[in-house]
What does this fold into?
Amino acid sequence: MKQSAILFFVLFMFGCQKASNKAEPIAEVKSAEVVQPKTVEQKSEINCEEFFRQLVLSSNLPAVKNYKDVFIRIESSSDDKIVLELYVKNNLSESSQNIQVVENAVAWLNFVPGSEKLFDITADPEEPVEISFKKELLTQYDFRKVCGITAGKNEKSIANIAKTNCKELTGEMMSGEECIISSNSLEDVYQEIINQSLVRDSEFLLKKLPKTNTSEKVNKNGIVEISYKINKNSVIIEMLYEGGVTDIELYNQNQSVRRKIVYNAD
It folds into this structure.
C-alpha cells in the first residue's frame, strides 16, 4: 500500500511538470504579438523637413532627376507659404586630409498650404510652374501639425474657387492675366491671391483687405510701396517696384469677380 502511494505521487508530479512545459511557449507568443505593433507606429513619426524631403523627391521636378544626391532646406515658413531650397554638396578639396565642401543651390520651390500645391520658382518667381508630387503624402502625414501651420477659416473654400474665361494679357512692356472668378466676395478672391502666391512677393500684401484707402511703405525685395484703393464693388492694388509696377484689380461683376493681374515694366 505504501509503495502504491509513492508511485502515484511520482506520476502526479511528472504530469504537472509536462503541463507546465507546454504552457510556456504560449505565453511567449502572446508577448511577441503585443510588442510588434509599437514598432510600426514609431516608423510613422516625421518632422517638417523630412516631410518635404519625401514630397519633393516624389515630384517630377527636373533637379531631382538631374542630380544624384539632393538636399532640401526650409528657407522660410509661414501659414501662407513655405519656401524650399534644393542644393547639392560638392567636394572641392584635392586631398582627403583637407575637406572643403561647398553647397550649390539647384532649385527653389514654394509650397502653398492653402491649396496644397507645389511650385517651381527657380526660373522666374513671377511665373511659378506647378509641380506634381505624390498626393498620398498629404493624407499619410499631418504636415500642418509637424510644421506648426495654422489653417485659415476659409482656406478650403478659397482653394476651391472655380475660374472661368481666363485670358492672357500681353502688350508693350506688360503682361498679365484676366479671369472671371465664380465668387461674390472680393475678400475671398484677394485671399486666394495670397494663399496661392498668384503674384510675386504676395507675402508683403496685407493679410486682410483694408476698409479704406491705404498705402504701406515696404522697401524690401525691390518693393517701394503698396497702395490700396477700396470701393464698394472694386479693389485696386498697386505694388510699386524700383523697376516696374504690378497692378491687381478686382471688380464685382454680377455674381462673379473679375480679377486682373498686370505686370508693367519701366
The radius of gyration is 31 Å. The chain has seven helices and twelve strands. Confidence is low (pLDDT under 50) at residues 18-44, 153-160.
